[in-house]
Write a structure and sequence with these properties.
Elements (H helix, E strand, L loop, with lengths): L4 H19 L5 H32 L7 H22 L2 H52 L7
Helix pairs in contact: 1-4, 2-3, 2-4, 3-4
The chain binds fe (ii) ion.
Fe (ii) ion binds next to helix 2, helix 3 and helix 4.
Length: about 150
Amino acid sequence: MTPCPELRRLAGEHARWRAEVAGFGGADAPAFAERLLDLWDEEILAHCRGEEDVLLPELAGRISEADAAIVFTLGDHVVLRRLARELRAADGPARAAAAENLARKLEEHAAFEERTLFPVLQETLGCVRLAELAGELAGRERSAGGRRAR
Ligand SMILES: [Fe+2]
C-alpha cells in the first residue's frame, strides 16, 4: 500500500528525528541529553499533540476508542512524556541512561506508528480525509510550539 502524502510527511518527521538523534552520537553524554530534550520540547511533543488532538479523535469517530491502535498510541505517548520528565530530572550517570531510554523509546514508537497506526489511519480515514486534516494538524503542531512544523 502506497502511504498517503500526509502519512509520508509524518514518517518524514520520524526520519528526521532518527537522523538528528544518530547525529548526536558524537556528542558527550550531557550534550546528548540536552540536544534530545531540545528536540523533544521543540518538535516531538508538538507532533504527539497533533496526533492526540486531530488524528486519534478522527479515528475514534470511525472505530472504537478502545481499539488497540488508539490505546497503544496514547499509552506510548504517556511513556514518552514520563521518560522526558525523568531525563529532565536526572543528574550524572543517571542522565545518560535516561537519555538512552528516551532515544530508544522514540525509535520504538516511531516504528510502531509506521507499521501499525499509519496503516489503520489510511484504511479507516483514507487519503482524502487525511489531506483535509493536514492543515489542522499542522496548525496544532505550530500552536503547540513545533519548531519546524509548517
Ligand atoms: Fe506518536
